[in-house]
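step=encode ok
step=design start
structure_in=
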């Protein structure tokens, strides 16, 4: 799904060959680091007031605790694990020391962060969803800071924000300014797509990136888990799919335990895992372990030995899909499954005499979009709906006139500028996710994060207020043709952070100079936390990356 965008990016890349200048994107005035009044906060909260009153934190006296009134106490494992994580981030990996209550607190010390879940149901043991309450309020004052959130999801974001407020004074002492923040996301769907089919990504690398997503307040991991090149998902019902379709049947697969681990690791960070099983195209790897699933292509009147998209005319196809998606709906707890549906090539279908006969019988004429529609609309959507899941599809399914159920979410990946596609999809009344401007697998020299940052998702032609409400967010996509565990993390971060702020912060947050300063510090924070996030421009970090 890269062809159209590639063209634009080639032009961009040529443009920046002129002098290999650092800020050669869109004639940007040179970005100079100037301390922001918002410190290193990223993404910028909705309302922030940071005062000049600074307080010291000491690893021996500071602790993160449950407020007495909190609706989630010591029994909430999700919060207890988060307290430990953030304590370690704040004090640079120092393990939690025994809090010394008798230590004499100076008048300018911050002793405690109290976390107060204000609603009776904290959702501690639940899964995040598109309608989760992610809001929080944070007050930092001497001697106690208070983080209030209706649900654990907001508390997780508030802990990240708190950790971002801590900095080192000139003597290296951990310091935080007295601050008041109230915060909530602008869009509820803020995702990262990772592709584990073109290249296999070890589970550890996926977990690392989930951790970084949490540091950027992303809340959806779109797992493009299988595609043409390989099928690494180990299905309990159809083990031959990965046995035959993975790059390697034992080392390059995600076992049920792996998948469970990814989902729980994500949940503990407020992140949904939306799996994508793309059909009827992009399925070459499926065919290796499931005979008769794909359409045999013909050369003249004989089968050519190659296969095309899923064969939509066989009953066995739908028996397979019913069992397969039943399993998927049980393995992945999220309320949505991404069903793909992009880039279906009709050539193979056209070549096959049985398909031609079926087209005639159904009265489809020569319109193969009707056959695609038959597969998706008449059969697949019903199969998935029977599992009580909602579904997301790539925009072509909509473009090809497939009649969709009103609750379908359409994922827009083609088009730019006025976003005419988004305008068409929302005019038809569908909920929409935007990815077209955020294909981060395309790289160029210079500060291309600015291009991602400057996108305004709701700036489309003829968009009424009703239409704009249908845009629930977006996703940064990292397709895997040229990406594996060696380069995924630095290629993704901090470029995806630009998308994170666009989807979280208020619409008015567009000052690229201020963003540059905060993002530079945010990137250094990622580096300090051990993440190889690439630099924006010639500069240095106080704590440089030390290699693996
Ligand atoms: C924090 O307070 C110090 C003075 O104690 C001030 O110089 C600094 O600008 C403040 N930081 C922010 C982000 O406002
Ligand atoms: C897997 O494939 C082998 C042949 O390669 C076959 O014998 C076996 O029945 C298949 N298993 C399933 C569960 O389909
Ligand atoms: C496929 O299923 C339909 C309806 O269940 C049935 O009418 C039809 O005969 C079946 N086709 C084949 C080839 O088995």
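sequence_out=
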């Amino acid at each position: 799904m890269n062809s159209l965008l590639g063209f634009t990016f080639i032009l961009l890349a040529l443009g920046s060959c002129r002098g290999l200048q650092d800020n050669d994107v869109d004639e940007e005035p040179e970005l100079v680091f100037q301390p922001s009044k918002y410190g290193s906060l990223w993404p910028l909260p909705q309302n922030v007031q940071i005062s000049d009153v600074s307080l010291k934190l000491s690893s021996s006296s500071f602790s993160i605790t449950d407020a007495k009134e909190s609706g989630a106490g010591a029994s909430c494992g999700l919060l207890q694990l988060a307290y430990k994580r953030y304590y370690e981030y704040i004090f640079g990996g120092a393990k939690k020391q025994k809090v010394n209550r008798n230590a004499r607190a100076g008048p300018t010390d911050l002793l405690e962060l109290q976390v107060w879940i204000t609603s009776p149901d904290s959702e501690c043991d639940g899964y995040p969803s598109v309608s989760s309450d992610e809001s929080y309020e944070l007050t930092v004052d001497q001697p106690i800071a208070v983080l209030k959130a209706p649900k654990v999801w907001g508390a997780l974001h508030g802990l990240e924000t708190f950790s971002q407020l801590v900095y080192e004074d000139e003597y290296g002492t951990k310091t935080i300014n007295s601050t008041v923040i109230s915060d909530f996301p602008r869009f509820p769907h803020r995702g990262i797509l990772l592709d584990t089919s073109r290249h296999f990504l070890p589970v550890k690398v996926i977990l690392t990136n989930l951790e970084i997503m949490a540091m950027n307040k992303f809340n959806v991991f779109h797992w493009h888990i299988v595609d043409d090149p390989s099928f690494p998902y180990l299905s309990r019902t159809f083990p031959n799919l990965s046995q035959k379709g993975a790059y390697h049947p034992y080392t390059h697969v995600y076992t049920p335990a792996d998948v469970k681990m990814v989902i729980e690791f994500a949940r503990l960070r407020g992140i949904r895992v939306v799996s994508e099983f793309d059909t009827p195209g992009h399925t070459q790897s499926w065919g290796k372990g499931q005979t008769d699933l794909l359409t045999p292509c013909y050369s003249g009147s004989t089968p050519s030995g190659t296969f095309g998209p899923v064969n939509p005319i066989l009953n066995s196809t739908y028996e397979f899909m019913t069992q397969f998606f039943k399993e998927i709906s049980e393995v992945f707890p999220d309320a949505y499954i991404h069903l793909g549906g992009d880039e279906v090539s009709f050539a193979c279908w056209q070549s096959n005499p049985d398909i031609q006969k079926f087209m005639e019988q159904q009265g489809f004429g020569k319109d193969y979009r009707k056959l695609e529609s038959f597969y998706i609309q008449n059969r697949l959507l019903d199969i998935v709906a029977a599992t009580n899941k909602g579904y997301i599809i790539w925009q072509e399914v909509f473009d090809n006139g497939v009649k969709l159920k009103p609750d379908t979410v359409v994922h827009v990946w083609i088009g730019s500028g006025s976003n005419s596609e988004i305008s068409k999809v929302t005019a038809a009344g569908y909920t929409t996710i935007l990815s077209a401007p955020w294909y981060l697998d395309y790289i160029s020299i210079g500060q291309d994060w600015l291009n991602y940052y400057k996108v305004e998702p709701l700036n489309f032609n003829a968009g009424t207020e009703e239409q704009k409400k249908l845009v629930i967010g977006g996703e940064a996509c990292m397709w895997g043709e040229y990406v594996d565990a060696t380069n995924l993390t630095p290629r993704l971060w901090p470029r995806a952070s630009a998308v994170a702020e666009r989807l979280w912060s208020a619409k008015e947050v567009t000052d690229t100079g201020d963003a540059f300063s905060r993002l530079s510090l945010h990137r250094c924070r990622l580096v300090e936390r051990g993440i190889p996030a690439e630099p924006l421009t010639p500069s240095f970090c106080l704590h440089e990356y030390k290699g693996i």
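step=design ok
step=annotate ok -> The CA atoms of residues 237 and 324 lie 7 Å apart.
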